[in-house]
Structure formats: C-alpha cells, structure tokens
C-alpha cells in the first residue's frame, strides 16, 4: 500500500479560474465557495473565476487559494482517497491543517483572510523585498547571510532554489554578495512584502491574537509544520507554530525529506499549478507525484491509485 501525502502550494500559484469546475460540477465544491462568500462578505466565485486585480492582492489571494484547495480536497476525499500525512508550503499549511482535521474549513478560510490582511499591512509597500537564489548550496547561503543585517532565508524550497527576504536594500546587497560567493543567479521577486522575514514579526503576533478564538482539534492524521519540518501530533503546538510561521523560514525541502524518511512514496499536490511537483523533481525523482488542479485530475488519481470512485 502506498503511503500518501496531500501537499498544498502557497501564494503565487493562484490563477483565474482555479476551482471553477469543482464549483460548477460538484455539490461539495460549491458549498465550500458559498461558505467562503458567506464568511467573508464578498463573492468568492467572482474573485476566483473572473479576471480582476484583487486575486493577486495578498488579503484576497490567501482566502481564494485556501477555498479552492479545500474544495478540491473535499471532492477527492469523497471519492475515497485519504492521506497518511499532510503538509503545505506557507499559506498551504492551512489547507494541510484542514485535511488533517485540525481546523474546520470555515476557520481555515476566515483565519487566512485575517492573515492576508495582517501580512499586507505589516510593512509599507517598497520597504521589503524577496529574491530567489539559484544553484547555490543552502549552507553556503547561510554563511553569507550570517554577517548581514535585515535579510534571512525565507524558503528552503528544494536543492538549488532558496528564497531570501527582508529589507529591500539588504536583500539587494545580499544578492550581490551571493553572486560573488558563487550563486549562479539571483532573481528579485514580484511580491508585495518581505514574507517569512523578521519584518513580519508584528503580523505574527497579531495573528496569534486572531488564533486565540480559533478552535484547534487533535490531528486525525499527522501534519508537517513549516517552521520545524517535523510531524505535529499535539494540538497544543499548533497556534504557536502558525504565529511563528509568518516571520520564520519555510523548511519545505526538510519537510519533504522527513516524509520520505517516514515511507511516504506518493505525493498529491492539491491546488493550482505544479510548483511543488517541480520542487519534488529536485528533491527525489523516484517518488510518485500527482496533481489535482482540474476535476478531471481526480479520475486520473483514482485510476493511478486503483481506487473505485
């Protein structure tokens, strides 16, 4: 029997039309979008399915991504596919929490709406920045950044792709120093804030206050936290980890390696795009990776897993 992980992409993977066929053709998918509309006071189908500028604004993006990914998860689970473990990249961790039974769909959607607003407001536009560092070992990047103020590693995505974040000037200077130290290339990212840097510590603290009112359940199955890259089985840890996650490094590669060490051999990426599948090719090419992005993908997964839907 395969050991299955449901994995969820983060902000940046959003695309107009995400989840539309789940909304239009499945009752459970439609209910998730309708719940989001009811909770948040604006039309989630309109946000996700029509061309608009809001979908790429953090305070809207996060709720939209989580809504679409949960709708997809519900349909997949109804067909009999259940994970042994879950994990999500940054924002995707909230979908992982839902899939692990830790957070209700309503709480996941409402919480990330607040999270998006807090992250958007934490740093004035233009003061922070993020950059991808390509083809350089993580330890070598850490060594360069150790002597620098105002910049840190935001994401350990996969071998050869690390993202740094912090004050704009510090990130630009770090890019120069990293190229001098051997990085093949650095790319400034088109983002609205210095996510997963200490500049967002205040946003993390405010999110902690939001989380005080959220009901956290004991995980029905383990999930892997971004901050520690470790399995979480105790609900008492969850709120603190989510608060820290906003301003701490996302240890995605380490998370995947821990799941691999635990015998996970099948990863199902649920949500728009194939970002995590791309990372997986660089982490371990031998495992099975599937994607749920369109309704037709559900049947492909069922067939591959020999599940009768």
Overview of the structural elements:
It is built from 13 helices and ten strands. The two termini are 17 Å apart. The protein folds into two domains: 4-122 and 198-305, Malonyl-Coenzyme A Acyl Carrier Protein, domain 2, CATH 3.40.366; 128-188, 2-Layer Sandwich (Alpha-Beta Plaits). The longest helix is centred in the N-terminal third of the chain and has 21 residues, at 58-78. It has a six-stranded mixed sheet with strand order 8-7-2-1-9-10, with helices on both faces. A four-stranded antiparallel sheet has the order 4-5-3-6. Helix 2 packs across helix 6 and helix 4 (58-78) runs antiparallel to helix 6. The chain has 309 residues and is of the alpha/beta class. Helix content is 46%, strand content 16%. It has helices spanning 20-25, 27-40, 44-49, 58-78, 92-99, 105-122, 138-145, 168-180, 201-211, 238-245, 252-261, 275-283, 295-305, and strands at residues 4-8, 85-88, 128-134, 151-158, 161-167, 185-188, 223-224, 231-232, 266-270, 288-292.
């Amino acid at each position: 029997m395969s050991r299955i992980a449901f994995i969820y992409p983060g902000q940046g993977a959003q695309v107009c039309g995400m989840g539309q066929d789940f909304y239009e053709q499945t009752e459970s998918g439609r209910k998730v979008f309708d719940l989001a509309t009811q909770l948040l006071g604006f039309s989630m189908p309109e946000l996700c399915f029509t061309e608009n500028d809001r979908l790429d604004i953090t305070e809207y993006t996060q709720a939209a991504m989580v809504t679409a990914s949960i709708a997809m998860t519900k349909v997949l689970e109804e067909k009999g596919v259940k994970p042994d473990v879950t994990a999500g990249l940054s924002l995707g961790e909230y979908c992982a929490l839902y899939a692990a039974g830790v957070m209700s769909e309503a709480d996941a959607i409402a919480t990330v709406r607040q999270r998006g607003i807090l992250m958007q407001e934490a740093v004035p536009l233009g003061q922070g920045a993020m950059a991808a560092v390509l083809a350089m070992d993580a330890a070598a990047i850490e060594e360069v950044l150790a002597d620098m103020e105002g910049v840190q590693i935001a994401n350990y995505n996969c071998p050869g792709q690390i993202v740094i974040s912090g004050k704009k000037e510090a990130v630009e200077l770090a890019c120069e120093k990293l190229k001098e130290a051997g990085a093949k290339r650095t790319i400034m990212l088109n983002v609205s804030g210095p996510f997963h840097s200490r500049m967002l510590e205040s946003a993390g603290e405010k999110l902690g206050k939001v989380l005080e009112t959220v009901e956290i359940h004991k995980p029905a199955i383990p999930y892997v936290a971004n901050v520690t890259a470790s399995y979480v089985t105790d609900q008492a840890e969850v709120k603190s980890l989510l608060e820290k996650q906003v301003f701490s490094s996302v240890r995605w590669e380490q998370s995947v390696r821990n799941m691999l060490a635990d015998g996970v051999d099948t990863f199902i990426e649920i949500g728009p795009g194939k970002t995590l599948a791309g990372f997986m090719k660089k982490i371990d090419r031998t495992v099975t990776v599937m994607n749920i992005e369109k309704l037709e993908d559900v049947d492909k997964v069922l067939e591959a897993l020999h599940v009768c839907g």
